[in-house]
């Protein structure tokens, strides 16, 4: 594996880089006479704006109406048991606003009030318990940022480049700040003995989406969460209470959480046998593939975010994450993986949370085969498509974490292409 050059984009380098690009190629236009947006009093300065009572709960301004979740109708038979995608190509930073965070339902998003909410813990416990929402609010809380990625994210790309946009190839992911109670606290409240090796968690919706989770994980960092990004969970993300299973596949993040059964064996439910297993080239299926391996994606430029400005300074940016811990480094290639430069992390990687990266570079209209490659604190390096296929074959849907390529053309348009 080639080593990334140590690119440290100080402000000074950035400015000299822009200067080298040549006279007339500056980021800001020279002040010119006669721009009416500068010389004339505009309509928004002639009158008054809206009062503080106009918008009790704000939505994005109308110029941003394209920053929305989108679904792909042919992917599923109907929109009830289906998925939509986060517009990651249009976001920056790391926190996903709830209003555009992807949704995955097996039997639709249900409406369940706090008053009607009950959470049962039963099975191999000293005392079976039922918590109301008000009960949950009385336990000591924690707040953490975590990504939630559906195991099927990028699943359509196994055989070849298919969907034209980061939103569609990598948008089954969101990253929020959750507030909740450690599952450990509630399990200890009920009391359990050493024969308890698993918990089976299920939701209140018709699908129930039941999953078995090993006790070790349940006692480690799993949260019973009721807030996301500071406010109540949205209906579509499991209001009023969902499970947060850091670093593990989205399917285990049970929404509308209604029951936790402590058991000595896994249930082997539909969601962990016929679904969410990975069929290898020889036809054998892997199961219990819970952790989401390190992965990254360039969000801009990308097919839905082409380069619209001229030659000169270009910001390449994207997201990296790992279910095994913090992202330690992200490299970017402009030539389909032949040479690499190390990107700048917006801030040090955080465990099981999205990390934003930037490469502040210069573009003079040359074609690029743009790739990002993530590394995590365990030393794991995100594989190429060929490396992943060698191990996994082409029968899989889930857990596709291979390096993605965007072909950026001289006109700035970008396309999903396969470089394996
Ligand atoms: N109760 C319930 N929980 C569920 C699901 C569901 O259909 N019902 N879908 C699961 C799947 S497959 C994923 S990827 C995540 C998606 O969470 P989100 O809709 O908040 O994005 O929720 C999981 N939890
Ligand atoms: Mo999922």
From TrEMBL:
SUPFAM superfamilies in the record? E set domains, Oxidoreductase molybdopterin-binding domain
Q: Where is the Moybdenum cofactor oxidoreductase dimerisation domain?
A: 286-404
State the needed cofactors, names only: Mo-molybdopterin
Query: What is the designated name of this protein?
Result: Sulfite dehydrogenase
Q: Which spans are transmembrane here? A: none
GO biological process terms on file: sulfur compound metabolic process
**Domain Oxidoreductase molybdopterin-binding: from-to ranges:** 112-268
The yes or no answer to whether the keyword Transmembrane helix is present is no
Q: Which residues form the signal peptide?
A: 1-33
- Gene Ontology molecular functions: heme binding; molybdenum ion binding; molybdopterin cofactor binding; sulfite oxidase activity
PROSITE patterns membership:
TAT
* Annotated organism of origin: Seohaeicola zhoushanensis
Q: Which UniProt keywords apply?
A: Metal-binding, Molybdenum, Oxidoreductase, Signal
